[in-house]
Amino acid sequence: MFAEKGYENTSVQEIVNAAGVTKGAMYHYFGAKDDLLYEIYHRLLGLQMRRLEEIAEGPGDAAERLRAAARDVLHTSLLYLDDLTVFFRSTHLLSADRREAVRAERRRYHERFRALIEEGQREGAFGTRTPADVAAHFFFGSLHQIGAWYRPGGPLKAEEVGEHYVDLFLNGLRG
């Protein structure tokens, strides 16, 4: 509902009606509507961070692990497209402390992802003309726009979109 109507335009009553629960039941698990919004961010970032850590510490050279990490973040972002959409439309609506917590989680993710780029640069798999930080920001900036144009059931399947993004990103690093 947040992805379709926006956080501000979705009432607690609409949420409980759609979930088939009472307001009391919702407030048993979530103290406020803001808690639901935070949970969307925290759930997606937590999943992606766990997966990134597994990939980054896994087998293969830096280029192989970066490809796997880029594929994974695209896969999970497209799999949870509504969450991604809400994430980028409504972050500013979180309380200041929660907004900072989300930013800190995102920073940790970006730093780990950037470290894979730097490792690949040290190994010679990627050029060093573009700083790793710029490359990571470029990749995530383009990823964050997917929710504005991609629609499941459209002419491109999620896997195809992911492969195109990953290829463009890694080919840019090699240049």
UniProtKB/TrEMBL annotation:
Positions of the DNA-binding region: 11-30
Pfam families named in the record: TetR_C_24, TetR_N
Keywords: DNA-binding, Repressor, Transcription, Transcription regulation
Repressor in keyword set: yes
Alphabetized InterPro entries for the sequence: DNA-bd_HTH_TetR-type_CS, Homeodomain-like_sf, HTH-type_TetR-like_transc_reg, HTH_TetR, KstR2_TetR_C, Tet_transcr_reg_TetR-rel_C_sf
DNA-binding recorded as keyword: yes
Full protein name: TetR/AcrR family transcriptional regulator
